[in-house]
Design goal:
Rossmann fold, alpha/beta, four-stranded mixed sheet, 9 strands, about 55% helix, 2 domains
Length: about 325
């Protein structure tokens, strides 16, 4: 199951997985649709973005792990997202994600996380404050429910979802090797060879001119939201602007437009951390980012990349000059 609000990237991910040998892949932009299908059809693996429709990726993950209606609480979940803040990584980890992969991504970066999930599954911890793969093997140390003693792993019960509801003390289930068992005696590496990865990467590389069209559509949407924000300076519109900038950053970087990706990421960070909707200077900062993005997209249509370091430095100076030092103003999206 692939859940991604970006229909174009969702299609690319699907083509990559097909090239790697995966089958029966469903792509949706809706967290609710993903959840219903996972409950009814028994998917083996979920790749989800954080920002998806109806319910977000974290809510989807939480339901899979903790709901009494969950078809498979230990289902491997890979979060493929542009949200790069360490606090977002911690939230996803503490909700029980198996792997956290940043956009922009490549066939190789996605494969490496899939290989780890399939070939080296971790013991599964079930407790009041945490349900998910053992976090102690990760670099980020758990902040909740620290365990002072080793627990003996036991087989996962048939009624896993119901067991989670009644758990009193933390328990450990043996690693879920369902995906590994489907490979039989083969390893994922023997199936997804470097040649296969090269073919999978072509799903990204051949997008070419189509990717530029998608980026242009994304930029037009950003401009529309910016005009709406000028009329209705409220938090929902700010959040929409923030998410649209993140989508453009993910698209641009994945398809090789690194400069545009970095500028869009700068806009996303500004909108999320510092933007005050009714601040005129802040609106000008957003407009300047959009102007630079317009130039970069047009330039890439004709000639390719150029060194944009000086211009990006000017954008940073503009933010430093006009952004508030505190979060006291209304409608500022912090967190």
């Amino acid at each position: 199951m692939i859940a991604d609000s970006d229909v174009h990237l969702g299609g690319v991910i699907r083509h990559m997985l097909v090239s790697m040998g995966f089958s029966n892949i469903h792509v949706t932009q809706s967290g609710t649709t993903a959840l219903n299908l996972i409950r009814s059809a028994g998917y083996d693996l979920l790749i989800t973005d954080w920002n998806i429709r109806d319910i977000d990726g974290i809510e989807l993950l939480r339901d899979i792990r903790r709901s009494p209606q969950s078809a498979n609480p230990t289902m491997p979940v890979v979060m493929l997202t542009g949200r790069m803040d360490i606090k977002d990584v911690r939230i996803a980890r503490d909700e029980g994600v198996h792997e956290y992969v940043l956009k922009p991504f490549s066939a190789k970066s996605l494969y490496q996380r899939l290989e780890r999930t399939v070939e080296s599954p971790r013991p599964f911890i079930v407790g009041k404050n945490f349900v998910g793969p053992d976090r102690r093997s990760q670099k980020l140390q758990p902040e909740r429910e620290r365990r002072e003693r080793m627990l003996t792993a036991q087989p996962r019960p048939m009624a896993a979802a119901q067991t989670i509801q009644t758990i009193a003390d933390p328990i450990v289930w043996s690693p879920d090797r369902a995906l590994k068992q489907k490979l039989g005696t083969q390893t994922l590496r023997s199936i997804i060879t470097p040649e296969v990865l090269t073919k999978a990467q072509c799903s990204i590389d051949t997008a070419g001119q189509e990717a530029l069209k998608w980026m242009a559509e994304n930029l037009a949407e950003l401009r529309r939201i910016r005009r709406q924000l000028a009329v209705a300076p409220d938090e929902p519109t700010m959040l929409t602007l923030c998410n649209a900038a993140l989508m453009l950053s993910s698209r641009a970087g994945t398809f090789g437009h690194q400069q545009a990706s970095e500028v869009a990421a700068m806009l996303y960070s500004f909108c999320r951390q510092q933007l005050v909707a009714d601040n005129i200077a802040h609106g000008q900062i957003v407009d300047k980012h959009l102007e630079v993005l317009q130039f970069l997209i047009a330039m890439n249509m004709r000639t390719g990349l150029a060194d944009m370091a000086p211009l990006k430095q000017e954008l940073k100076k503009l933010i430093m000059r006009h952004a508030p030092e505190s979060g006291a103003a209304s409608y500022s999206l912090h967190g």
